[in-house]
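We modelled the chain as a single entity of 81 amino acids. Its sequence is:
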Amino acid sequence: MDLLVILNATNLPDLSGVETWGKTVVVQFITIVVMFIAAKHVMKLKLGGVLAVCCVGGAVTWIIQHWSKFSGWIEGFMNGM
């Protein structure tokens, strides 16, 4: 009976921390890639390339961080078709 009380009292970890960690790693990777490609365009003096890379990188980062909202928009769009 004491074992049951101990098991109920402990806070077992769940997967929410792992999911948050995974999102952070992916966003940091995208940021590094965007900075590298933007620097490459700066060296070639292509301002349009820098702006395009920053916009696409920002959009991808936003989609990753707000996946439930984005997937809801896609589902609503598909249901409306």
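As a brief sanity check on the tokenised model: The radius of gyration is 21 Å. Residues 37 and 43 are 10 Å apart (CA to CA).
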